[in-house]
Amino acid sequence: MTFKTKWTIGIAIVTLALSACTADSSKPESNDAEQMDHSTMNHSNSGELPATLKNAEHPKFPIGSTAIITDGHMDGMKGAEATIVGAYNTTAYSISYTPTTGGAPVKNHKWVIHEELINPDNTPLAPGTKIKTSASHIAGMEDATVVIDTAVETTVYMVDYTDTATGENVKNHQWVTEEELTAK
């Protein structure tokens, strides 16, 4: 690789890093991906699951099938074709928290599942409940004290998809709820 090529790649990496740092994470999350900052979202995941998470017996979207993502938690997600990697029955929570790494509070983050909460009750938690999470979807989330905004008993899916904005292949994305998918 030539010096000029290395220099160009280095400039591109710095530009991307700086643009991620300037995003405004104080905006609440919503269905409009343009209002969200997931620049620190762990796009490609190992697929590691909480030990207590149970497979769904008869999911609407079986493993290996495809569906269209109808809700955009992140840029490039809405409208993407997803391949179902896993399906699990659980309670999904939208949460608000202040990152353990500092920075602006994150509001209405979708989704953390019941099995990613530290020492939760056996029943779904009520909105307003404060609890810690072991989820590490975004930098500063793991071990943060979160406030439950909403709770939905549903089937959640781990999916692979191609980001419609960047073309990046996203592997083992956690989580998309059944209500956020539609048949292809």
Sequence-ordered SSE layout with sheet pairings:
Layout: H1 3-21, E1 66-69, E2 81-97, E3 106-113, E4 130-132, E5 145-162, E6 169-177, E7 181-183
Antiparallel strand pairs: 1-2, 1-7, 2-3, 2-5, 4-5, 5-6
Organism: Lysinibacillus piscis
Domain DUF1541: 64-114, 127-178
Signal peptide: 1-22
Tell me, rounded to a whole number, the average pLDDT.
81
CATH superfamily: Domain of unknown function DUF1541
Tell me the helix content: 10-25%
Number of strands: 7
Q: In CATH, what is the class? A: Mainly Beta
Number of helices: 1
- Radius of gyration, CA atoms, in whole angstroms: 17 Å
CATH fold name, please?
A: SH3 type barrels
- Find the structural class using helix and strand composition: mainly beta
Sum up the overall morphology in one term. Answer: globular
Indicate the proportion of strand residues.
25-35%
Instruction: Count up the domains.
Output: 1
Largest sheet: 7 strands, antiparallel
Specify the CATH architecture: Roll
Organism: Lysinibacillus piscis
Protein name: DUF1541 domain-containing protein
InterPro entries: DUF1541
Domain DUF1541: 64-114, 127-178
